[in-house]
Amino acid sequence: MTDAPKPMTGISEFRRGKLPKIDTADAENFINEKEIWNFIESTKNPTKERIQEIIEKSLNKNRLNPDEMATLLNCEDPELIEQIYEGARTLKERIYGNRIVLFAPLYIGNECVNGCKYCGFRKNNTAAERRTLTMDELRQETIALENDGHKRLIMVYGEHPMYDPQFIADTVKVVYDQKSKNGEIRRVNINAAPLDVEGFKIVKDAGIGTYQIFMESYHEPTYKEMHPTGPKSDYLWRLSAFDRAMEAGIDDVGIGALIGLYDWRFEAMGLLYHTIHLEQKFNVGPHTISFPRIESAIGTELTEDPKYKITDDEFKRLVAILRLAVPYTGLILTCRESVELRNEMIPFGISQIDGGSSIGIGSYSKRDEESYKRSQFVLADSRSLDEVIAELSEAGFMPSFCTGCYRKGRTGEHFMEFAIPGFVKKFCQPNAILTFLEYLEDYGKPESIKSGLKLIEKELEKMPESEQKTKLEERIEKVKQGERDLYF
Ligand code: SAM
Ligand code: SF4
What we know:
9% strand; two-stranded antiparallel ribbon; binds S-adenosylmethionine; 11 strands; TIM Barrel; 488 residues; alpha/beta
């Protein structure tokens, strides 16, 4: 007689699903390792003139080509590196202004069938405590996040048959449906394992914003070494995930690489190749790019001293170069990085950061010591959302919870901010002000209120008198009177 299967924690309300059938017959391997190394080798020792020419191309709103990105990656001279930083700062200021979009990650479950060597959730990591939120716990987590003032989430899932498309869709709907006082989640993005086209259609119908997934390493031999078991071991299945997502109608996708698994310059080129592939095949590039660095994870030796660890200086270069290479994308910097580094890097073109993040399963509603055992890795920035907001506004950055484009059906808003003259002034800046004011009215503490109101006033002073400004001022009054969710 066989033992009856043990019930899984938290999963009882959800049916047990299936992993998608891996089919890579139509998948294209657009990462040409030899070609990437040739670009990196053939562009060594760039001149000052060449670097200036490339930065100018980017400032004129053009995506860079692989040889141009490789040239920037080859800059070692401090003077040239400073020029790259200056170019990235100028691009951010000129095109995107001072807004920073805020979000939080929400971990749904850490059951996983894969063997990713760097991740605390990998299948045979006995140090990790396995948990999946119940519907009720998910509601509690959502309420806790809403009570902190969040409006935008990224929901994160391990790879497991129970986290099938219907489960993902159900959990997304639970979050959208849960309101707390004036609080509501207005945009849910997801970070979940690659699905098949049918699966992507199901999660799209649940109303997700961005579908995000990281390639981890674009270098195939490294990828294979790092992912020895489980469906994730198939390089092509993962590389082609966005092709299937796009086929299913999800045109808002976020790419990324886990920095520290292989040479960071190669990974930067991989991100660019991926961008070019999506542009060429679907006529739309990625909405965001992420570049998480490996952090220490429970029971995971590899994370203590990654072989291709990059220094803070190299990391700054990577971000500034990505800003210049793909000027139309959003760049995401997470709480994996320290407060100091985050503050230093935001001006280089970061457009989104998380704040007040907690990555243990169920740890927003119950912040206990034990949650570390259910966390994927350790965060370096543990400030509350309000502390992040107070510091951002003090430094002149406008925190934004805007979800206007997504809800008005203007998809790919980051691209529109970039491509349409006047878009930022017409939509993004006013919506940032309105959502920030909502935050201050409902959740602000004395410090954030003081610096926040001052910043809003300064922004309004900068705006020339116009019909648009009058409309904004009317809406500001309405928010002060208690109306919510006003946007252009
Ligand atoms: N299970 C899905 C997957 O692997 O794509 C999605 C969720 S996974 C938890 C999200 C991301 O966390 C991974 O893509 C990986 O880049 C990142 N990650 C894993 N271990 C990490 C570590 N030790 N430090 C920093 N990021 C890590
Ligand atoms: Fe599982 Fe994702 Fe962690 Fe890999 S990175 S072990 S797939 S949760």
